[in-house]
Amino acid sequence: LPISQPPIAFGTTYTNSVGDLYTFNASGGTLQLVVQGGAQTLSFADASGLWNTDPNNKDWKTPNNVLAAFRNGDLANFVNGATVTVDSGGVQPSQLNFSNPSPTAVQGAGGSITTGLVTANGSGSVNVQSDLNSSQGISINSGNVTLAKTTVNSGGITVAGGSLTNSGTTTITAGGLNVSAGSLAVSGSIS
């Protein structure tokens, strides 16, 4: 364990601030320290940066304002404006939320983003040029969202406020496109 972690007594567990579970026990006469990484809820902490899974890249903060590295499976929040380059290997957050206020913007480009649900609840703008693959749908409640190449496998795309601009190719496998409020502009294609 890093020196900053407290000692773990034999037969007990410890969970650190980013959700990693440490268990110290014995199995068949052998001492074991089992480490299980837990999913984190993170917010992007910088004005610009590389979004990857490098454990040394601590461009994210936990709800307790502890700097942390992003791991696939973490929940990713953008609460302020940022320019983000997605690693060419792509990233896989469990959920992707945009709540940046106006007049800030989130710009995302580079490798692919594969996630569950995508939500936009802030009044700022969001421009995702990376390939965006959602397995649970996209929900736009406010703000100005521009998507380039997007695939939605379930849940569809719902625009309940704000605006959606489709600048590339969007494929919706299930759930359809539902615009109940706000606006939709298409310069690419939606199928």
Describe the structure in your own words:
This protein has strands at residues 13-15, 21-27, 30-36, 41-44, 48-51, 60-61, 67-68, 75-78, 82-86, 95-98, 105-110, 113-115, 117-120, 125-128, 132-134, 138-140, 144-147, 150-152, 157-166, 169-172, 177-186, 189-190. The relative contact order is 0.10. The strands form three sheets. Strands 4, 5, 6, 7, 8, 9, 10, 11, 13, 14, 16, 17, 19 and 21 form a 14-stranded mixed beta sheet that branches. A five-stranded parallel beta sheet has the order 12-15-18-20-22, with no helix packed on it. Strand 6 and strand 7 form a beta hairpin. With 191 residues, the protein is an all-beta fold.
Question: Could you give the topology of this structure?
Answer:
Layout: E1 13-15, E2 21-27, E3 30-36, E4 41-44, E5 48-51, E6 60-61, E7 67-68, E8 75-78, E9 82-86, E10 95-98, E11 105-110, E12 113-115, E13 117-120, E14 125-128, E15 132-134, E16 138-140, E17 144-147, E18 150-152, E19 157-166, E20 169-172, E21 177-186, E22 189-190
Parallel strand pairs: 4-8, 5-9, 8-10, 9-11, 10-13, 11-14, 12-15, 13-16, 14-17, 15-18, 16-19, 17-19, 18-20, 19-21, 20-22
Antiparallel strand pairs: 1-2, 2-3, 4-6, 6-7
For the structure shown, list the relevant keywords.
0% helix, 191 residues, mainly beta, single chain, 51% strand
Task: Summarize this entry quickly.
The protein is 0% helix and 51% strand. The chain has strands at residues 13-15, 21-27, 30-36, 41-44, 48-51, 60-61, 67-68, 75-78, 82-86, 95-98, 105-110, 113-115, 117-120, 125-128, 132-134, 138-140, 144-147, 150-152, 157-166, 169-172, 177-186, 189-190. Strands 4, 5, 6, 7, 8, 9, 10, 11, 13, 14, 16, 17, 19 and 21 form a 14-stranded mixed sheet that branches.
